[in-house]
Amino acid sequence: MSESRQIITLLIAVTSIGAAGLFLTGGTPYLKTDCLIECYGSVYVESYGADIYLNGTLEETFVYRITESDRYRMLYRDWKVPLSQERLGEPYVEPIGISPPQGTIPYIKDWSAKVWEEQDGVFSIRQLSNTEYTSDIDYLAVPNEAGVYMPERFAAGTFRVGYLFKLHPPLECDSEYCHLNLKLADEHLPYKHFILIVHDPDNLVSRIYTHPALDARREGDAWIAEGVSPENTLLEVEMLLRPQVKSIMDGFPRDVQDVESKTLSANSEYYLISRLLSTVVYVLRAMVLVFPLMLVLIYYKYGREKSFVVPKFLSYVPERRKPWLVNLVFRKDPFDFDENGFYASLLDLHRRGVVKIETDGKEEGLRVQLLKGYEGTKDEYEKDVLDFLKSFAVGDFFDAKAFKEQVERLRENATTGNSAAVSRLSHIRSKMQVLMRSADKSVADEFVMGGRKYAAISFVLFLLLSIAILLLFADYRQVYPQLSFALFTSFILVLQSIPPLVVSSALFGSWKEDYYREKLEWDAFKTFLSDFASIQKYSHEDLKMWQEWLIYGTALGVGDKVAKAMEKLNVSIPEARSLNYMPVYFGRAYSMSSPPPSKGGGGGGGFGGGGGFGGGGGGGEVIPDTVFYLRNLFCIFSLVNSRSASEAIHLAVFDSSPCIPFAVSLAARFRFRFRFPICRSAQLIAFLTKFLSSADSLFITGRNSKNFSSLALLS
């Protein structure tokens, strides 16, 4: 491929990766727009609305979107603070009512794990015998959850669920202000769009802050903020209020000094970091678009070659060079050497009378005889070839078939732990590595100055950037959702920097002197040898010419095509048959010389972002029957084959297995511990379970946060 086609192909690949990546992670963060990756899934929240009244009333509207029928039974909204209809001595949320979709059963499961069902607008405790669905709700729901249950499972479509709560939050107050930080969600389904409305007819709100950082606007007697909330990110509203709010909100006030300065300090820092991260996202996205242009600039500055006119076909050898050097420098990449350089060198040594190659058609044998004077060669690579042949020759004859069988026997012995066989095999491997893979690549420096370092630098920089963002993402993704977009974009940059690593090292480097002309001539010669219509025009009697074509064609990777053309044209050169056997014996021996792997043994009320009262968010639960029973069966075996229930859960957690909720529930309910080390197969079971029921498509969506809350029951 010509240099111009290489750079064009590279630019198309890099630009396509960038465009596709930006499209899939598209949408400007925190504006009213689709979030293509975050919002995809079988269930998400199309829109979320929260009307917040300063008397403590919270009216929420969830519009859930389900894209697959007959998978989900429950749509819910959970809290990370107590949910109770009775007054408690600590901050809590009081459920008032639920507006369910038609055909669903509204319910709550309070802080004490009692299930309440709504009937005629009143919540009451139902005994298990009163309804066949209470036991299902009791089993599936977790404490501090309100939701709706569909016995026959939801069809695909849109479902609106309204919740009415009375908040009894913590308030931090001094003589001038009260502080309220309300966390509406932190672990939840993706919210494609949300709108927060704080009703303030008495002008009790002095300042209002949202997390993520949004610009809240005043319209009439209300404060309004809207945006999108990616999955499992913080959605919080923090307010600095007049002290009169204590008389209308039934909360839990406590005295705190200097409320105003603490609120301003915490949110100034949060908003500053949020804006900084948003800027980082925009810069990274700009880099995705600019990166192809950077490659063009590097190419024009360091890699663009002078123009030479070379015919498409060239029927003669451009330069009398060693075949292995032609393979190394002119075949593909100037620093890429393969086994064809070794095969071509053997053919060239035969042509020059240094060795004699013999083939046995009946037994498919290949022998190389070392002729007198073979020690006189001055080429270092050819010396290595001849030394290799001499090392494994019997007398002056190297038998390739016998050598292959010897390597196979050594490998068989090495698999049994024979140290002598392993050592001998490693010795053979190192010798063949030089002959068939590495050669002396420094020789290529005489012809070309490689430019792959520029691609390597960009790859390393982008990779380090991604790792740095990933570390921040792991700790702060809920508080700063911009990190999700930054992480995705940094991954795009890493992917964009991979294609420049795999193109020819000369693309961003430069050929020295006029060697680029010679490179083009070797390409034209290779094209000629690959074209039977062109090669058949030449004389069949000039065997010396055909010998050269076979040798250099092999070095260029098209020796098989030359050999086939010779066979069709009845050109008789005995050593041409050896090309059929060389890969069989030498290639097989090289692959078998790799030492076998060794056998191993196993044996709220805070200031700033994230400190708010509330938490949780909207979710949905799916439990297909077949997968449910298969999954639970695997999880039982996982528990039994572990030393304890807690060990099985530990393995499952670190293997991201959907066993977690079942294992936790089972261990928490019955408080048993298994101690049967039958086969230590918990890790395998966890893997199989994960394979059978991937978390996103078969079991749980948006419910992981609640699974971990039960881990404390095992202690």
From TrEMBL:
Domain Predicted membrane protein YciQ-like C-terminal: residue ranges: 316-566
Keyword Membrane included in the entry's annotation: yes
UniProt entry keywords in alphabetical sequence: Membrane, Transmembrane, Transmembrane helix
A Pfam family hit: DUF2207
UniProt keyword Transmembrane, yes or no: yes
Residue span(s) of domain DUF2207: 46-240
Residue stretches in coiled coil: none
Spans through the membrane: 7-31, 280-300, 454-473, 485-509
Protein name per UniProt: Membrane protein (DUF2207)
Organism field: Candidatus Methanoperedens nitratireducens
